[in-house]
């Protein structure tokens, strides 16, 4: 099963080194390595927001700024229009995915740092037919009960089809945890997509459902960008898109690999921006004609 053409948007790819396999893209760093290079890929852009000098224009305040929220287990950028995150970023390794934390002691709670106008509640999900789907997975943070509990804050949650959340998406999360066995660090950035479809009139539209009295957005798709930091200094990137609908768990996860520019164009985000895209030392590599 392949994603619909509307999900596959062409663009400029950035990569160096060779580590191909079923649509895989990889990078080998020449100079910059380590956590400063990898983390955070998008937080850096959010932190550059600066206020204009005091003047009559801003005397009553600004209507909004990027809502960056830092948890023990993850970092996220909240989109108040959607009642959910634009992206959620995690850093996984062998130690973080092990421990005694138990999700049975965790509860879904509202994010009280979000204004009530822009906040999802548990009541919004009740009777909707959707699961409260984690973007930062609870099982990724067994190292700390607090870290696990924080993944249940509703600012880390989107409505997710149960037959995706509990099957193929769960398999992708398990796969990410398994990658910690052979990599120094596994950085996972997850978020929603709202992709256009052609309607009967031949025009393209972006349509998505909302649930509850707070109109929580139901994404049409989800992305997960997995950045592997290897022990030899190589960086490998694995970008996935899954539709928010039932997905057969027998379909190999590699079928959902897409070029990174597909997600960048669709989401309005840029990943691993510390890689110089124009550098002559980097060679773009894509596989499978994706």
What would your notes on this structure say?
With 290 residues, the protein is α+β, with helices and mostly antiparallel strands. The protein has one domain (14-44, 66-267): Extracellular Endonuclease, subunit A (Extracellular Endonuclease, Chain A), CATH 3.40.570. The chain is 15% helix and 23% strand. The chain has 6 helices and 13 strands. The strands form 4 sheets. Strands 1-13-12-7-4-3-2 form a 7-stranded antiparallel sheet, sandwiched between helices. Strands 5-6 form a two-stranded antiparallel sheet. Strands 8-9 form a two-stranded antiparallel ribbon. The longest helix is centred in the middle third of the chain and has 17 residues, at 162-178. The model is unreliable at 1-47 and 276-290 (pLDDT under 50). Residues 70-278 form the DNA/RNA non-specific endonuclease/pyrophosphatase/phosphodiesterase domain. Residues 71-278 form the ENPP1-3/EXOG-like endonuclease/phosphodiesterase domain. Belongs to the DNA/RNA non-specific endonuclease family. Pfam families: Endonuclease_NS (PF01223). One of its GO terms (molecular function) is nucleic acid binding.
In short:
With 290 residues, the protein is α+β, with helices and mostly antiparallel strands.
């Amino acid at each position: 099963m392949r994603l619909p053409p509307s999900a596959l948007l062409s663009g400029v790819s950035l990569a160096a080194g060779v580590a191909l396999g079923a649509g895989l893209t990889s990078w080998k760093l020449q100079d910059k390595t380590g956590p400063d290079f990898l983390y955070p890929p998008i937080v850096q852009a959010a932190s550059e927001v600066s206020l204009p000098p005091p003047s009559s224009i801003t005397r009553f305040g600004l209507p909004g700024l990027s809502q960056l929220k830092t948890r023990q287990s993850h970092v996220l950028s909240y989109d108040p229009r959607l009642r959910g995150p634009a992206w959620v970023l995690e850093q996984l390794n062998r130690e973080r995915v092990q421990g005694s934390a138990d999700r049975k002691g965790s509860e879904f709670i509202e994010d009280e740092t979000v204004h009530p106008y822009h906040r999802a509640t548990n009541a919004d999900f009740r009777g909707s037919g959707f699961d409260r789907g984690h973007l930062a997975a609870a099982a990724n943070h067994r190292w700390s009960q607090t870290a696990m509990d924080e993944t249940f804050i509703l600012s880390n949650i989107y409505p997710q089809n149960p037959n995706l959340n509990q099957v193929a998406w769960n398999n992708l999360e398990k796969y990410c945890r398994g990658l910690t066995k052979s990599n120094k660090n596994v950085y996972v950035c997850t978020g929603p997509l709202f992709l256009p479809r052609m309607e009967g009139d031949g025009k393209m539209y972006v349509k998505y459902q909302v649930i509850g009295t707070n109109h929580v957005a139901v994404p049409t798709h989800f992305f997960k960008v997995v950045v592997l930091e290897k022990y030899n200094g190589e960086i490998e990137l694995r970008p996935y898109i899954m539709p928010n609908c039932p997905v057969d768990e027998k379909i190999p996860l590699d079928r959902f690999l897409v070029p990174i520019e597909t997600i960048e164009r669709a989401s309005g985000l840029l990943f691993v921006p510390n890689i110089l895209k124009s550098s002559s030392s980097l060679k773009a590599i894509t596989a499978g004609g994706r």
